[in-house]
Write a structure and sequence with these properties.
The protein is an alpha+beta fold and 91 residues long. It is 29% helix and 36% strand. The protein has one domain.
Length: 91
């Protein structure tokens, strides 16, 4: 799984959706073929959540507590995340 910092292809960008509690939530511009989801970074940690239903897909370097908090934020902002996804990808 790549993080925003690890991705260097200029044709693919990370699209910020929300900054909450110091954590950026985003998706990548080339991800429209995947189910709607959101990425989040915290410190050196990183996670990816499906939006429908909210489910942790992958995580690296985040504690259980950080993942729990990130999941709650995804649930809280899921409708906004899904709207941004539709606006960008049209799906």
């Amino acid at each position: 799984m790549r993080t925003r910092r690890q991705y260097t292809d200029d044709r693919i960008t990370s699209l910020p959706v929300l900054l909450a509690e110091g954590c950026p939530f985003f998706f990548f511009s080339n991800e429209g073929t995947e189910p709607p989801h959101i990425h989040v970074e915290r410190g050196d940690g990183y996670a990816k959540f499906w939006l429908e239903p909210v489910e942790l897909v992958d995580a690296v370097g985040m504690t259980t507590r950080e993942l729990g908090r990130a999941r709650l934020l995804v649930i809280q902002h899921r409708i906004d995340f899904r709207e941004k996804w539709r606006e960008y990808f049209g799906t």
